[in-house]
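Students often ask what a holo structure prediction actually looks like on paper. The answer is less mysterious than it sounds. You provide the chain, you provide the ligand, and the output is a string of discrete structure tokens encoding the 3D arrangement of the protein together with zinc ion.
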Amino acid sequence: MTSAGRFAPSPSGELHVGNLRTAILAWLFARSTGRRFLLRVEDLDRARAGAEAVQLRDLAAIGVTWDGDVVRQTDRGNLYAKAIARLEQAGLTYECFCTRREIQEAPSAPHAPQGAYPGICRNLDRAELEFKRSTRPAAIRLRVDVTEYTVQDVFRGEYTGAVDDFVLRRNDGVTAYNLAVVVDDAEQGIDQVVRGDDLLPSTPRQAYLASLLNIPIPEYAHVPLVVNHAGARLAKRDGAVTLADLAQEGVPVEGVRDRLLASLRLPAGNLDHALGAFDPAGLPREPWVWPGS
Ligand SMILES: [Zn+2]
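The corresponding structure tokens follow.
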């Protein structure tokens, strides 16, 4: 399969300038390395009616082009179920009946990373298992034999992060993000993952899971986020931050695009023009403060 990069938004609302900047970067990384560029809608959770269409329109308006059809995670339940079944057959999963509260109140295991699942359901005997099954639906957790894992990142270099017995399928039946993203990237031939660096802490879990599934680990580039004046991740409440908001304030889409390109030290103009000047080594390494409209 040809190699590919991707942008994978959650259709929970309109994309803001931070999302659009990450999309432009993912596009530049993929196109500058001769990769295909795929769009995947991560709609397992938090999907809002109509949001996908607006997001696709805004991406196209800013100049981000993609190859092939848009893929939606809600169409891919059988792929996720197959991957979980493979892990199950290898003895790498277990059922977990814990509530959030039970997890919070449990003593943490010795040497476990902070916030790690404390292993309450890891070794239930048959009677306990049958009793718990009669009380509550189970989530499926990965049975992990490491506490951390190391990945390579274009921006951050070697990055080591915690890996615990994380959830693969929630007890409401919804596939967990960490499983879906690994299965999707592999199945779509994605070998380059460019996304916001808020996702870096969960990357060791995903790479470890990929290794268990004999899936090649993609190249990662976690890009600095766009922040507000207080240094917090940009959000809707930070004023005019979507293409529609900015258009209302008199900033046309080309103006937004050029501002985003300038923040990446790239020349104004269409994305093909920026592509000619793109060099990952020249990208800023710090979060970018959105100056507002
Ligand atoms: Zn449990």
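The radius of gyration is 21 Å.
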